[in-house]
Amino acid sequence: MLIYDCEVFFKDWLFVIADLKNKIFKTIKNNIDELRAFYEAHKYEIWAGYNAKNYDQYIVKAILTGHDPYKVSKSIIAGEQGFNYSDDFRLINLYTYDIYNNLTHSLKFYEGSLGDSIEESSIPFDIDRKLTDDELQEVEKYCRHDVEETVKVFFETLPDFEAQLGLVKLSRPQYLSKTQTQMSAVILKAEKMSECRDEFHIDLPETLKLTKYKYIADWYMDYKNKDYEKSLTTDVAGVEHSFAWGGLHGAKEHYHIKDNILLMDVASLYPSLMIRYDLLSRAVRKPEIYKELRDKRIEYKKQHNPLQLPLKLVLNKTYGAMKDKNNPLYDPRQANRVCVYGQLLILDLIEKLEDYCELIQTNTDGIFIRYYDNDLETINDITKEWQSRTGLSLEFTKAKELWQKDVNNYILKLDDDSLKSKGGYVKKLSSLDYADMPITNIAITEALVNNAPIEKTINECGRLIDFQMVCKITGKFDAIFYGDKQLNEKCVRVFAGDKTLPNITKRHTETKVLHKISNTPEHVFIDNSDIHDKPAPDNLDRQFYIDLANKRLKEFV
Q1: Which CATH number fits domain 182-422: 3.90.1600.10, 1.10.3720.10, 3.40.1080.10, 3.40.190.10?
Q2: Which of 42, 153, 212, 407 suits a disulfide with 249, CB 3.0-4.6 Å?
């Protein structure tokens, strides 16, 4: 397997390639014969890169088929699809894996999150001459750095790659570069429907039994509400709920309780609904395939067979594909039925339980309740009846304490004292998600769970990386300014600093107006170098982080 990146200029190009098996790096510069020989020697291996599916693979194919890589590069950057540039590209087979497929940010953002250097090369890509030897050497240095960072991101997301290989085993090697949703359509042998004009022609599950909350089911059946912009806000079991065409949610806000907390999650809700109520996309001509995959996945899971994961992906990605106009599985009517069936059947469960517990939270596929000891047997009977009637299965988890801001932000302490958290304020951060002032998450969690003062946690933290905020600009903006100085980078790492320091802004591409970068401090310093072992400096404004963490903490309690 290879991980590679390329750089393309007016009169120059180069590749840096990491050979994972042999643990070596190779650079190819402006030498077509060398690239062709390398391709012939490695064409049956996997070529992985960051956004390689949309860019790098076409630079390889352009050079090998005699096209100008600079023109191809400009075409792709302008928004053209690389495969449309020339039919010659079909002559070059490349097993491409795109590490970007399951991620949302740029490579530089993740480099920053990891604490690595995000400094950019000083060589402009629009330079209209051949590069000097020194310039080529600098480009190679930064390209190699990006390949090294891509390798890190690859290993951080290794389960995604392993799952992708599992999907390939279920389909074809040529589909390696496809997204998991695209591959799900292939594996299910979906044949795209010609049109779909019945997306709101929905019905109700025959197993549904609503009395008190029947008006909510009636809302979905009312023609004037069949609009994705419409939603219903109403009280259910003492909690304000929102029912909409995209999902259901309701939660007690600013809420803290101890003991007798029970989570009820519907196991594989959407796949179970598709099988039990025949809600799979009508583009799948043989729906029994889906059930066979589900049964096979259950069998593999019992056997600890790693192929259970790709099967799980196929089952879970199908719902999203049914809402994607570009996917062969597209069938919005069935997707709407799945969503509405799920919401109403969970509402059915709440209606039966509400006299015997306190409802804390309702989400897409489950509920949190606080049960009363005397009613636990009744709750057990109700859930058994509901499962038998609906054909859905519940999974139960007990917890001893809950801190809840809202349905999307909470910390649960489970019975084994482990923590389950959700939301930007308190979630446990991975190395690829360590980019938005992580010290505030740490301090809030410590304050809630261990009653540690915010000030103590932040003032005692000596690691600079815990205070970082990685900022990147989108296509609407063309430059970042630090005070009056325009920066070379489009992604920077900032920290709250003392009042002698300037702010950071971004310039709008069309209006040229400067806008403050969202959520950044008024005064910042920038450090785009490797900060893994750097201590927090004296000019770090710790009070900014303390104030922010205290403000967020008040939203929980």
Answers
A1: 3.90.1600.10
A2: 407
Question: CB-based contacts of 382: which residues, under 8 Å, 6+ apart?
Answer: 349, 352, 353, 356
Q: Which two tokens stand for residue 121?
A: 């090369």
Residue 210 pLDDT greater than 90, yes or no:
yes
Q: Find the length of the chain.
A: 557
pLDDT tens-place string over residues 148-189: 999 999 999 998 899 898 888 888 888 888 888 999 999 999
Average pLDDT of the chain is: 95
Q: CA neighbours within 13 Å on the CB side: how many for 477? A: 20
pLDDT for residue 306 is more than 90: no
> What does 374-437 look like in DSSP terms, one character per residue?
GGHHHHHHHHHHHHHHH---EEEEEEEEEEEEETTEEEEEETTS-EEEESTTTPPPPGGG--B-
Residues of the chain with pLDDT > 70, as a percent, come to: 100
DSSP letter for each residue of 146-164: HHHHHHHHHHHTHHHHHHH
Separation between Cα atoms, residue 495 and residue 201, nearest integer Å: 53
- The bridge status of strand 46-49 relative to strand 95-98 is parallel
66: alpha, beta or left? (left if phi > 0; alpha if psi -120 to 50) = left
Q: Are 130 and 280 a contacting pair, CB within 8 Å?
A: no
Q: What is the pLDDT of residues 466-496, one digit of tens each?
A: 999 999 998 899 999 999 999 989 999 999 9
Neighbour order of strands in the sheet with 409-414: 231-236, 239-244, 247-251, 357-363, 366-371, 255-266, 394-406, 409-414, 419-422
b/e sequence 445-459, b meaning 16+ C-beta within 10 Å: bbbbbeeeebbebbe
* Inter-residue contact 5 to 146 (CB < 8 Å): yes
Instruction: Return d(Cα 96, Cα 52) in angstroms, integer.
Output: 7
**With 0-12 CB in 10 A as exposed, 13-18 as middle and 19+ as buried, what is 491?**
buried
Three-state DSSP state, 179? coil
Burial classification of residue 121, based on how many CB atoms lie within 10 Å of its CB (0-12 exposed, 13-18 middle, 19 or more buried) = middle
Q: Where are the domains of the chain?
A: 2-156, 182-422, 431-553
**In angstroms, what is the C-alpha Rg of the chain?**
27
